[in-house]
Amino acid sequence: MEAPEYIHPYLQKEQDVFDVLDRLLCGEQAPTALLIANYAVVIPFLKYINAHNITCPADISIVCLASFDWAPLHTPALTTVEQDTAEFANRAVSVLMKRIENQDCANVPACKNIYKTVTLPTELKVRSSTCGIGRGPFGEKASSMNELLLSEEEIQSIRSKKATAVISFHYAGKAWMELHLKGIRNIFDSLDISIIGTTDAHFDPQLQCRQLESLRMLEPDILIAIPTDQKITAEAFQEIKESGIKLILISNVPDGLRPGDYVTCVSINEHSHGQNMGHGLGEYMRQHNLKNYGMIVHGADFYATSQRDNAAKQVLSEEYPTLHLCETVRFGKEDEVYKKAGDLIRRYPEIEALYISWDGPAMEVISALTELGRTDIAIVTSDLDYADALNMAKGGMIKALSAQCPFEQGQAIALAAAKAILNQTVSSFIGIESISVTSDNLLKSWKRVFKEEPRQELLQAFKENPNYVSGRE
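User: That's the sequence. What structure does it adopt?
Assistant: Structure tokens below.
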């Protein structure tokens, strides 16, 4: 479809809007977002998507190119691009007054700088009519876990097969992996699917390759794995594919494999995940009048973490233009982060906040900054675990994070495995949404992520925090 077919000016009547949406939204190349420049189009648009069972923002996002009082009150609340019209007026009046004060402006040297182009920034007010579009490693739009639901007949058929599964984690011992396993077991136990082997690669791709060979020798029906390195583990995963074992991947796809070589890849909506982190950092810095920040990101070529980090960078550069990025530091393994964080702060002592790809490296950074006496630096990271939750509850350095829902991701993995046992095809990428966490909603988020009440230590930490507000959830 050519670009002009996406642009539709001069829409006067409601039926004109409906006709355009018929052409735009019902074709094979339907857009994922609409920019509406005229508020008069908004109501017909919302009426149309409601009548056609189109969900905003899950199916399509909407951004309005203007500010209006009703934007936050719509369902969903509308994202807007807002201009500072008062500043436009002030600048215009200033130029006009200078002209009035200097009637014969051509002969007045002071007038030379009156005529100039001034570009005023706009402000993007992100509300619930937009969401990040999660993409798989091959550009696939993320499908919902809802498509994996099983009928009673399918459940009985799976139970009768007494299937087996094995799991290869990149590293274990974190709540992220434990909740994945808990979610997988939650579904597998109800379907009589047995887990006959689980390995921990300790983030060592060579070790994972040997472990994959051992797991393959068990001849399971299903192998679930998160690759530690896309290149080094590629041959081992190719052997899994050729063995006929049904392969389900978590977060990343090894080199050489394409959709169809594996059942599906299950991850989160990494774009939204990164946006949550970017907004968390940007808002904290804006509220506390901070300016300089750094980024500590994973250096491996993982599409998942790359998509997350790039989404955060985009949010920070586009929506918080007054903030200054001092440097982006990359790491390969977590044990490198302590030194790299210390070196970064020595080079840029003016840094006031840090973005860190996930919680494990964030804890290394906290250790390094504590050693340097720089506990004044704010940290935003991802994934909710006990250590970062306790730090936040105590009013520590972690100010915001984006939390995955690994239990639900585990359930999605198990349901995809069940579909595969029935030789059913599922989407090549399944994405689960993440949630934004600050100290204000930490306890509620803990319940949502861990499926249990917050630990007593967290509750006590809040009570001992001088900034604690009674009744906070």
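The longest helix spans residues 270-287.
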